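Hey all, quick one. A colleague (J.T.) asked me to put the fe (iii) ion job into the tracker so the inputs and the structure tokens live in one place instead of scattered across chat threads. No bug as far as I know, just bookkeeping. Sequence used:
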Amino acid sequence: MTTANTATPDAGLDAKTLQRMPYQYPQPKEALPDLVVPNAIPQDERIWVPQGENVWFRPLCLNVSSGYWMNLLKVRKSGVLSRHRHPGPVHAFVLKGRWRYLEHDWVATEGSYAFEPPGETHTLVVDEDVEEMITYFQVNGSMYYVDPWGKNVGFEDVFTKLDMCRKHYKEVGLGEDYALQFVR
Ligand code: FE
């Protein structure tokens, strides 16, 4: 094992004590502060940022240095949500309800994990009998919205998400800087 600091003043400490000892040195000077979001599924409804009719997102980590974002997507009332291409990978974990893509025969049900590979274009649908869907998405790079033939009709990235947060949180009285706590 390589360590930056070779001082190991552990003489006289028993194995059990050593095992429970926290790391004894400072974290790297340039490391970003960690981020803990209590109530990831918020009690305060204002934290959900409207994204469209009956569609909201809840930011968890808006990573401006690596260009990705982690958020919860919430949908009430069903419908076709969006058709999009993913230039980067997406990871999804379904917390509530279910959804599917018109291009696939699998259904993302409550408790499911899904990986969406870069390059894929698909159309997200929440079926009529689903009252509410909440999914944790990690989206890398951007969402590239398209028509059925792949023609671009819009996009989102971590910066457009941050702008939406700013505007919404100002309107609902949380303050436009409320989302800065999620930025890394
Ligand atoms: Fe997708």
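Adding what we noticed when we looked at it: Residues 84, 86, 90, 116, 122 surround fe (iii) ion (CB under 6 Å). Residues 46 and 173 are 9 Å apart (CA to CA).
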